[in-house]
Amino acid sequence: MARYVYDFTEGGRDMAGLLGGKGSNLAEMTRLGLPVPPGFTLTTEACRSVLDTGGEPPGLWEEVAGHLTDLETGSGRLLGQPDNPLLLSVRSGARFSMPGMMETILDIGLDDDSVHGLAKVSGNERFAWDSYRRLVQMFGTTVMGVDPSLFERALTQLKEVRGVPDDVHLDAEDLARLVETYKNVIHQETGERFPQSPVEQLRRAVLAVFASWNGERARLYRRREHIADDLGTAVNVQRMVFGNLGSDSGSGVAFTRDPATGARGLYGDYLPNAQGEDVVAGIRNTVPLTELKRLDPGAYGRLRAHMETLERHYRDLCDIEFTIERGTLWMLQTRVGKRTAEAAFVLGADLADEGLITADEGLARVSGEGLARLMFPRFDTAVTGDVLARGVPASPGAAVGAAVFDSAEAVRRAADGERVVLVRQETTPDDLPGMIAAQAVLTSRGGKTSHAAVVARGMGKVCVCGADELTVDTGARRCTAPDGTIVEEGTVLSVDGTAGTVYAGAVPLVDSAVMRYLEAGAGGRATTGVVDAVARALARADAVRRLEVRANADTPQDAVRARRFGAQGIGLCRTEHMFLGERRKLVEEMILAGTDAGRERALAALLPLQREDFTGILEAMEGLPVTIRLLDPPLHEFLPDRADLAVRIATAEARGEEPDAHDAELLAAVGRMHEENPMLGLRGVRLGLVVPGLVAMQVRALGEAVAQRLAAGGAPRAEIMVPLVGDVRELRLVREEVERVLAEVSDTSGVPVRCPVGTMIELPRAALTAGRIAEDAEFFSFGTNDLTQTTWGFSRDDVEAEFFSAYLDRGVFPVSPFETLDRDGVGRLVGIAVEEGRATRPDLTIGVCGEHGGDPDSVHFFHSAGLDYVSCSPFRVPVARLEAGRAALDLADAGDSR
């Protein structure tokens, strides 16, 4: 029979898949001898069984009963015991941290009788009733489905009647009255009474936590973080310890280093006379962790020692929850802490310097996505103006948007394309959709460990918490600054999550320090802090990566920028971009030419312009490969819009004027060339075979540019790429013309000119016949944008706006296949093409030049598929370099020798 329950003494951190992150880490702390309240964990397998079958797996509650008996024996108290009750917490604990997304129920075991026993044994009647009202409120909301606002309303009304600012000032009699009010709310809303059986409380609480795995906010968070839906959550049942027993008690959250910057030192929040939920909920402003040193030096010293133990044991930043019960310190949780991108890079460098991790481990702990965030602009501090409010810098970055005061409004406005800042007193897990939609989150309560701060850091959102100078009135949809300024909904705010400041209006942006360093290229100097950490991570990635990183660049300026960013060549130079602007007229002449001679004149005029462009790009990339793609889009794209032409002609006729003859000629040409589906029509290699002289002009321009650079003592490495090939015979015909023209250029210039000829693999048929295409192709470059379109049958320009949001919401795919490569479909075609292409030509060079070349997850796939290089936009080159290095480490860890 399967086993579903494990005591904390039986597990360890290597069992996260079974015991969840929280359960495995509680077991690990227990094994280390740290003061952990005893308890047990119901496994993720139990959760999956409950959710799959709708019932409890055989033997589950017998196991729970056995562990409960052991817990009662060890505690010397019984669950439900009237005079000295054992109270339990029931907490979720998925394999991957999902802060606040699932449920917690505290103080299980209290009823109308045992609350008096708890008051007597604790000597604190207020504490007993406070614990009971928390249980009724949590149980009513989580287990019985009562609207939480009903409980909040009752609490608010009681505070108003008593004239007190918060619940700490309510006495025992007030709280006893509140318990009765809460129980009446439950009965009115559900028709049920709050259960007086502690065993029933426990059972229903466990099942409710299991069920919360499929709650709306948990599903939304998993989609956002790409966490699988079939993992399930563990449930941890633990003996309660109490931080709300008076001034010598309290709860806190601590980090072994600053999760926002990575700086050394202890960081966190402490709340005297409070339970842990009060800290993370942000309903009361906390004090800094350093204040605990004054309040309770002994507990502070023990906490610091335990934190040092955990950081050295986990070899990473640790996020810790703790409670002090009348001077006794208890460790309630630890996990590897979520951190900002800045903190991740700084920690990777610092921990390596301290010998806790290797340089490779430091590289593995950062990401290309994080590097991209650090490249985002920052506010120009020279022109920020007056500060509207200050708070805790919880998640760095700069964001500008219209103030909104609830999650639904944030989602609505963002869907309309508006940038928004979500302003709340404090966020709750139900605010997750609004946090995702917003550019930044601003709260008037809470600190670096509040719900808003933890979730925003995990998502890379700008966040300022605890701006208590702001008076936030969500009902009136406005907030008031300390100088009396009223911020109505829709007012533009600028939020600086690095400095913890908020400004009215839109503050200008400047490049980040990381971007300035990267822009400087080889001449840049890394300073201390995050810039130095980024430089070290990139240097390590460059040292270990196998994949080359090239850039997509169409101008000499783009090529220069790409080289500064570390590009090792150009993987895609799109020649159609050279036909725009004033040159469009020459393309029109070529299209409209009624004779061979007219077309040849237009091509002859284009040739020196193309040659000039190619020469500049080859010079900028001296000594590095430059892949020139022959003209790809349909020719009608170079003509005016059909509708615009028709309107101009109709307008002239309506005025009784003679329409412009050139307009009429262009409209006729557009009509002749009209295609129902131009992306699958006359474009790419088909153009080269149908339009005489087009390929010859482009190849001659490139050949002459290569000859010029060679004659000047340069080292050009030009390659010619033929787009949209579906059959080897297409490529063979074009290649014959390429070789003929290059031979003519060599004879005329007296300089031997040779350019390798390859093709883009962007059609499923090309991937499936790659072995034959490789007979005439010296290299492959996957055009994954078109390959994704033709594999899925998607027209990217249409479907993303039409139904992608529905597909993402309903889990058809976890992320757009145009952002991250579809491994199962498109990836399989890539694998087939690589295998069959190299079977024909073992020295075949293979790369990718679609947008996926700069996507972190896709880079890992291309590495494992055996590609030689990825090519992406210049600004994504540093990201691709970093991920190529991390991909090499992934395979090294897996024992792959590639």
Automatic annotation (TrEMBL):
Coiled coil: none annotated. Gene3D superfamilies: 1.20.80.30, ATP-grasp fold, A domain, ATP-grasp fold, B domain, Phosphoenolpyruvate-binding domains, Phosphohistidine domain, Pyruvate Phosphate Dikinase, domain 2. Residues 418-500 form the PEP-utilising enzyme mobile domain. The keyword Membrane does not apply. It holds the Pfam family PEP-utilizers_C. Residues 536-885 form the PEP-utilising enzyme C-terminal domain. It catalyses: pyruvate + phosphate + ATP = phosphoenolpyruvate + AMP + diphosphate + H(+). Residues 18-72, 79-285 form the Pyruvate phosphate dikinase AMP/ATP-binding domain. It is an enzyme of class 2 (transferase). Its EC number is 2.7.9.1. This is Pyruvate, phosphate dikinase. The lineage of its organism: Bacteria, Bacillati, Actinomycetota, Actinomycetes, Kitasatosporales. The gene is ppdK_1.
